[in-house]
Write a structure and sequence with these properties.
Number of helices: 12
Strand order of the largest sheet: 2-3-1-4-5-6
Distance between the termini: 30 Å
Strand content: 15-25%
């Protein structure tokens, strides 16, 4: 009836809202929230009845075990789809939980190819995968950066190891010389033993498969050990923490990032303005991918014209 209270429809969000990459998780959450707020302003209806979308945000702490618990909680909460997770190590095990429940999941940040190679019809991504990006980065290091002796470090997560594997593949395809491959973990703070080994092997480029907080520590420790090799990596190495340590010039660092810079796309510039107006802060990095993921989810819900999870998953 006219003026009826809209039905609350929950869309899940899962990402690291606490811990070292919490700012990335919050940026993702904000991106999804912006899409939902803009949709609600249009007074949406599903099946002819008014609805109001709300974001059910859950913290997976970038921990695969917590991610599985969060996935089950969101199913119990009755969400109709999920935007998440960020870390590949979280998305891959959580996707199996969503698959059993016929619940659509769109990751705005997980790039390990295994996620979508599982063949789950309910699992999507709004970002390319490392099987492409990592290989290109490896070729770039050899052909453009003229790397002669390459050292590789990864954090043994699904993301870091998968990216480093792809980078190594690309470097070798370009006839690059990978002289050493080392590994750490995503909680480590001291990389001096690894870096000493790389220094002894006279590397001129170090590729790091991992996240930016550790990338910043790596730069510091490379400098303290007098290791003059350039650092090349992914995982938002352009973050404030990294730039403060690297200096504004970046001092020979290179960063592998998804998509063109915001200032190169008119639509992205417009998004950045709306984001700033809504949250009074600038886009960190991944918000546009979460925004697009939420838009795609909303479009699928409208396409299904239903709140049935399986029908929504089938509408993509």
């Amino acid at each position: 009836s006219y003026g009826a209270e809209p039905e609350i429809v929950k869309i899940g969000f899962a990402g690291p809202l606490t811990g070292p990459v919490a700012r990335v998780g919050k940026d993702l959450e904000n991106g999804a929230q912006l899409a939902i707020d803009e949709e609600n302003a249009k007074h949406p209806t599903i099946g002819g009845k008014p609805v109001k979308f709300v974001l059910d945000a859950q913290d997976d702490q970038a921990d695969p075990r917590v991610a599985v618990q969060v996935a089950q909680k969101m199913i119990d909460d009755g969400v109709v789809g999920v935007i998440g997770h960020y870390n590949s190590g979280c998305s891959i095990p959580a996707s199996a939980v969503y698959h059993k429940a016929n619940l659509a999941m769109i990751t705005p940040g997980s790039t390990n190819p295994v996620l979508t190679h599982q063949g789950f019809a309910n699992v999507f991504r709004t970002m390319g995968h490392d099987g492409i990006g990592g290989v290109i980065a490896g070729q770039f290091a050899v052909q453009q950066l003229k790397a002669k002796r390459i050292g590789i470090i990864d954090d043994r997560t699904a993301f870091g190891q998968g990216l480093a594997d792809a980078f190594e593949k690309g470097a070798k395809e370009a006839n690059g010389n990978v002289v050493d491959r080392e590994f750490t973990n995503d909680k480590a703070v001291d990389f001096r033993a690894i870096l000493t080994t790389l220094k002894q092997k006279n590397v001129d480029i170090v590729f790091f498969g991992g996240l930016d907080e550790q990338g910043a520590m790596l730069v510091k420790q490379m400098r303290s050990l007098g290791l003059t090799a350039r650092l090349f990596g992914a995982g938002a190495l352009k973050s404030n923490a990294f730039l403060q340590i690297s200096g504004t010039s970046g001092e020979g660092t290179r960063d592998l990032e998804p998509g063109p810079a915001l200032d190169k796309l008119p639509s992205a510039q417009d998004f950045a303005k709306r984001y700033k107006a809504h949250f009074n802060q600038d886009v960190e990095l991944y918000a546009p991918f979460a925004y697009d993921a939420a838009l795609a989810m909303i479009k699928a819900i409208h396409g299904a014209d239903s709140l049935d999870r399986a029908k929504i998953a089938a509408a993509f």
